[in-house]
Write a structure and sequence with these properties.
By secondary structure, the protein is an alpha/beta fold. It has helices spanning about 15-25, 40-50, 65-80, 105-130, 140-145, 150-170, 190-195, 195-205, 215-225, and strands at about 5-10, 30-35, 55-60, 85-90, 135-140, 175-185, 235-240. Helix content is about 50%, strand content about 15%.
Length: about 250
């Protein structure tokens, strides 16, 4: 029997990350669920994963902390013997127009959304090189491609993730490790539920498909990029956005 693959998904306690974790379990992977503080939700994701007859592991880790990131990767590698699929999904928003955006809110969003992905990639890099196979998938955003008023910090971090993706793709291509980004549009999660109804309706009307996406829509793209059929795709940005960015 072929060895079961291991996926590490950051921000998998809720929203898009949970949908990705559950989908990868359905694909037959053991899944490590990284979360920031919401233990109950993370444990619920683990239960959902285990329904597919695979193993799960909950790890509390602030991805913006390089030491915690290192320890989390070590723990996952000790439990599962390595990582085959890394999904950098953890992210936060701290929206404001530039004029009123606090310096620390700019910094915090960069540290979590961009540095967090960099630390995870750095901490898994060596084992990916040794394995000579693997998949890295970074969850960026259409904001990183289009910009968005009120999201200078978030858009900068998400655009940065695209540069990170392409650089890592070039560094690891010869080792048979692919690195791609997914740029979701508006997706129904806690993050978008926090927006005022007026803003949400306005956003929906801008989407050619006239509806918000679901976590499962993003998870389907992750399953494709993590799968055997995507073996020759690297350094790409796949928009999953109902046509918003075209
Ligand atoms: P949610 O706010 O619903 O969930 C965020 C997740 O990230 C939670 O699991 C949270 O853990 C985790 N997290 C937050 N900060 C940290 C941290 N410092 N360390 C570790 N984990 C952390 O977000 P979504 O599901 O909506 O978004 C997921 C990703 O998709 C994000 O990167 C977001 O930017 C991106 N995205 C989302 C879009 C949308 O419309 N929803 C559109 C485009 C991109 P905990 O539960 O413990 O707090």
């Amino acid at each position: 029997m072929e060895k079961r693959r291991t996926a590490l998904v950051t921000g998998a306690s809720r929203g898009i990350g949970r949908a990705i974790a559950v989908r990868l379990a359905k694909e037959g992977c053991n899944v490590a669920v990284i979360y920031a503080g919401n233990k109950e939700a993370a444990e619920e994701t683990c239960r959902m994963i285990e329904q597919y007859g695979v193993e799960s592991l909950c790890v509390c880790c602030d991805v913006s902390n390089p030491e915690q990131s290192k320890r989390a990767v070590q723990k996952v590698c000790e439990s599962f013997g390595g990582i085959d699929i890394l999904v950098n999904n953890a992210g936060i928003v701290k929206d404001a127009l530039v004029l009123s955006m606090k310096e620390e809110d700019f910094q915090k969003v960069l540290e979590t959304n961009l540095n967090g992905a960099f630390y995870m990639i750095k901490n898994t890099y060596h084992q990916f090189m040794k394995k000579r196979q693997g998949r890295i998938i970074n969850i960026s955003s259409v904001s990183g491609l289009m910009g968005n008023a009120g999201q200078a910090n978030y858009a900068a971090a998400k655009a940065g993730m695209i540069g990170l993706t392409k650089s890592v793709a070039k560094e690891l291509a010869a080792r048979n490790v692919t690195c791609n980004a997914i740029a979701p549009g508006f997706i129904q999660t806690d993050m978008t539920a926090a927006l005022p109804a007026k803003v949400r309706e306005g956003a929906e009307s801008q989407i050619p498909m006239k509806r918000m996406g679901t976590g499962e829509d993003i998870a389907a793209a992750v399953a494709f990029l993590a799968g055997e059929e995507a073996r020759y795709i690297t350094g790409q940005v796949l928009c999953v956005d109902g046509g918003l960015n075209m």
